[in-house]
């Protein structure tokens, strides 16, 4: 079913008369999924919106050359991940802080964010995630929340599947400990 | 003491050391997290955000895509050459210490072998362009003054764009 939808979108986009309809269908189908994926990485709503825009600019620009070697959803996920990482790197440079300081800064801001209504435990989770090494935090978010297969995370991050599994379990244990203490 | 496993027949199958112990711990951790945290992050969006998102995104994205400069034929032609020249700049700078390297003095066949070995040449057109009868590379004089950060940023962007286009 998903494959059929992907095929339909790609066919619409490839045909000049239906390209716009194809773009619309692509947006309808993936905007929420990609937004939440990005939001979990960049934390702030306005930032997530900006990154989402950039993702679709890249997608619209590149999709006519998409050959279907991977699933469309995986391709989109990869672009969204890369854009989010690029955004965070730039943000860190702008604020002249490293990644761990940036994560702490983002979580500090979260407490006053009107678009965060998490309870204490959800805030504790964000604090715990901010303290993890970058890769462990990313892997945890992808696996725990987005339920991405270990194999796909490994491909995305260019790591072995074993390394990804191991990182995930280490991250999960650290978070469990952190939440118990908090 | 490990329980005797009644299910284990001697079929020659093995599991990694501590597999069942780790499996149990990992499963319990996962269960604990899901029990305490659930899958809700607490992140919210403004009211009606997703209802209007498509209408907000489409014109902005469309506009940005149209604004992206189309590569001229010359630029398209030069991109692979410049990318390779940049890679060479990094490689040669790192490998040669402080002595400036005149790329024209490097034997073409050595360069060709190196690039093929390192899979820098990703298509025939690039090979043709690089080894065409031109003097683009001859004019490049490399020294330690090459800013490697700038080169890495450039190469990273190029690789990302290539990945998107060639997927």
Low-confidence stretches of chain B: 119-140
Number of domains of chain A: 2
- Measured by DSSP, the beta-strand proportion of chain A falls in under 5%
- Strand tally of chain B: 2
| Main sheet overview of chain A | none
Helices of chain A, by number, come to 9
- The H/E string of chain B reads HHHEHHEH
SS strand fraction of chain B: under 5%
Largest interface: A-B, 47 and 33 residues
What structural category characterises the helix and strand content of chain A?
A: mainly alpha
> In angstroms, what separates the terminal alpha carbons of chain B?
53 Å
How many beta-strand elements of chain A?
A: 0
Compute the separation of the termini of chain A in Å.
44 Å
Question: What is the element string of chain A, with H for helices and E for strands?
Answer: HHHHHHHHH
Note down, in words, how this protein is organized:
Chain B: This is Anti-sigma factor. Chain B: Keywords: Membrane, Transmembrane, Transmembrane helix. Chain B: The chain crosses the membrane at residues 74-94. Chain A: Belongs to the sigma-70 factor family. ECF subfamily. Chain A: Residues 123-174 form the RNA polymerase sigma factor 70 region 4 type domain. Chain A: Residues 26-92 form the RNA polymerase sigma-70 region domain. The complex is a heterodimer of chains A (182) and B (167). Chain A is mainly alpha-helical. Chain A has 2 domains: 1-114, RNA polymerase sigma factor, region 2, helix turn helix motif (Rna Polymerase Sigma Factor, Chain: A, Orthogonal Bundle); 118-182, Winged helix-like DNA-binding domain superfamily/Winged helix DNA-binding domain (Arc Repressor Mutant, subunit A, Orthogonal Bundle). Chain A is built from 9 helices and no strands. Chain A has helices spanning 2-14, 19-42, 45-62, 72-95, 99-110, 120-131, 134-145, 150-157, 161-181. In chain A, helix 3 (45-62) crosses helix 4, helix 5 (99-110) runs antiparallel to helix 6 (120-131) and helix 6 (120-131) crosses helix 9. The model of chain A has no long low-confidence stretch (mean pLDDT 92). Chain B has 167 residues and is mainly α. Chain B has a domain at 73-166. Chain B has 6 helices and 2 strands; from the N terminus they run H-H-H-E-H-H-E-H. In chain B, strands 1-2 form a two-stranded antiparallel sheet. In chain B, helix 3 (73-96) packs across helix 6 (148-166). The longest helix of chain B has 24 residues, at 73-96. The model of chain B is unreliable at 119-140 (pLDDT under 50).
